[in-house]
Amino acid sequence: MNIDRNVDLVDLSNGLENVPVFTERSSAVMTFPEFQYSPDNVQGPGCTIDPSEVTLPGCSCLSHSCFTESCSCLQTHGQAYDSAGTVLNLSRTNSGYCLPVFECNALCTCSDACCNRVVQRGPRLRLEVYSTENRGWGVRTLEAIPHGTFVCEYAGEVISFEEARLRQLAQRSEENNYIIAVREHAGTGSITETFVDPAMVGNVGRFLNHSCQPNLFMQPVRVHSVVPRLALFAGRNIDAQEELTFDYSGGYSNQPPVEMLSTQNDAAIQASRTDGLQRKECHCGANNCVQFLPLDLSIIK
Fewer C-beta within 10 Å: the chain N or C terminus? Predict the structure, then answer.
């Protein structure tokens, strides 16, 4: 695709991604935010685990690509992708629930081209950060994206709940809240929470806008660390030049998004987060728009 529109496009990632993340910097109408680009999560205040540290066990496969019959990773966690790298079990994206994905990691002996290595390879699509008409900066794709394709991560500082709360309360009304809270349920009473803030350190995912009828869905993917990567996949076939969006409340459905709260304890957690915080109007333009942006994202498994 020819992306030359007689404008000065530069690589936002400064070569840190496999494919340039294009943006029009020199003639932008809005002031471009100052932040440090990082393709991966980094350890932030209050986080006790370094996301870059390899902590998960690896398989001993010697083949070019792993097979379920012989791979300990696939036997333990199940097969997440097909041979083309498309995420499987796409039907679950309409349920409001999301299962985590475990990829082969740095301790595995399979090749870097293994079919169980997708998110760790980074974005492979040409994306552009651009100035939208009424929603600030946004991200659009410069090429068509098939259903189930990995698009990018939502990467940033991994911080504690206390730090996330302090940052939210310190924000001025005109500032954007980038903090995402992912809550994973692994059985009765077992809840794992991950807070990611790409405001100061982040990747292209920080520019993705919310939509009540999105074309991307998010799910946690674990690679080398127990800290999940927040991976975004195409929830349907996406056309070139289409803006990329996801539902900040964590769902993916044609129905209006709802708070995904399964227990009274969850409700108490949500109330403690949102107390004193002002919700912003949603300008996604979807016919099922609920008028206000969610305050955080919760993924239940």
Answer: N
Contact yes or no for 68/55 (Cβ under 8 A): no
Mean pLDDT of 26-53: 88
CB-based contacts of 45: which residues, under 8 Å, 6+ apart?
Answer: 157, 159, 160, 163
Tokens, residue 146: 């098939």
Query: Is residue 161 helix, strand or coil?
Result: helix
What is the length of the chain?
A: 301
Query: Would the pLDDT of 42 be above 90?
Result: yes
CB 272 within 8 A of CB 183: no
Q: How far apart are CA 128 and CA 259, in angstroms?
A: 30
Please state, in angstroms and rounded to a whole number, the distance separating the CA atoms of residues 281 and 291: 6
Identify the H or E element spanning 195. strand 191-202
| pLDDT band, residue 127 (cuts 50/70/90) | very high
